Amino acid sequence: MQIEIDLMKSDFVSIILVDKEVLGVAKINVSGSFKKTDTFFRKVNTGAYLDPIDRVGQEGVMALTQATPVRTGLTAGSWSYEVERGANSTTIYWTNSNVSQGWANVAILLQYGHATRNGGYVQGIDYINPALRPIFQQMADAVWKEVQSS
Q1: Of 11, 45, 79, 109, which is the most buried if we count CB atoms within 10 A?
Q2: ∠ at Cα 24 (22, 27), nearest 5°?
Q3: Rounded Cα–Cα distance for residues 128 and 18 (Å)
Q4: Range of the domain at 118
Q5: Has residue 6 got a pLDDT over 90?
């Protein structure tokens, strides 16, 4: 026995049962809509659900750029993001490419503080966490909304 299900029609689903030993074909029409299910699978198939992740990455870069303490503007202008997509997860990394003396990431020095050449210490400024907190909250709200709508 073979069962065929046509999900391409958004207003109803046709289920056709075919038994090769019986000469007739039975056709059952089930009323109802699979429009939301069909839309969901199309998004998964095309990767369209990943678009919001890139939007969040860009919003994070803008927030970090605006929140970074500015002396020359080099550190503020050096933010970017990377998205790593695994089999069961997606991770966003915000990175800053401004490196001093070939090894010291200036964004990290500003965030956590650093020693000076003459033995002093420069206190860090917590600017990364407050800048990304609203982004994280938006992500959590979007996920919760998606969970509730399913």
Answers
A1: 79
A2: 120
A3: 62
A4: 49-149
A5: no
74 & 123 share domain? yes
Do both 78 and 124 map to the same domain? yes
Q: Which amino acid is at 33?
A: S
pLDDT at position 5: 45
Which residue is associated with the tokens 């429009």?
Answer: 35
Average model confidence (pLDDT) across the chain: 79
- Return the DSSP state at 74: T
Residues 78 and 134 in one domain: yes
Could you read off the pLDDT of 106-116 as tens digits, one per residue? 999 999 999 99
Strands (E), the chain: 2-6, 12-18, 26-31, 79-85, 90-96, 99-100, 104-105, 113-115, 121-123
CA-based torsion, 96, 98, 102, 106: positive or negative: negative
Q: Which tens digits make up the pLDDT trace of 44-53?
A: 666 655 567 8
> Please, are residues 110 and 125 in contact by the beta-carbon 8 Å criterion?
yes
